[in-house]
Amino acid sequence: MSISARENTARNIITRKTAGVSLTAQQISIKLLYRKRKKLGGHFVDGRINYKHMKIYLILVFVIIISISNGVIAQKISCQELFRIVTENYDSKNTATCYGSSMLVKANYYRLEGMGFVVAYIKSSDYDFKGKPYIFCGISTQRWNTFKNNGMLGSWGESFHEYIRDFTCDCY
Per the UniProt record, which residue ranges are transmembrane (predicted)? Predict the structure, then answer.
């Protein structure tokens, strides 16, 4: 039996069951689609989705997205907040004043809870005597001492690029 013959048979059955009340073609199509969905468990049928399940899928996706984004954001800290925490709560501090440097005014090494941080004050021009502070994380004491020794004996800028610059903090 072809598809159109099946539809005609179904229309006749539905018309008979409604006790003489004639149904429109759209109402018949809806009833046929409902029967197909019911047979297949109500999931995906003819490219359509059961709206009860769709709500559950959307809520699940929404919860997953919120959970992921909260986890990522919760681990981030602003660079200003990190700077404030390190410079106010450090366990020890060591300063290198970068005389003769065209790049650095000074650099401070802080130890806080076993971790090393460097705050480098970078010049914006030759006439900048304060510099803008930038914070770097994960600097070992040995790396700091090597930076200081190479800066005093050679170039502060080259020493900074070799030993400090690649240790940027994961902050925003």
Answer: 56-74
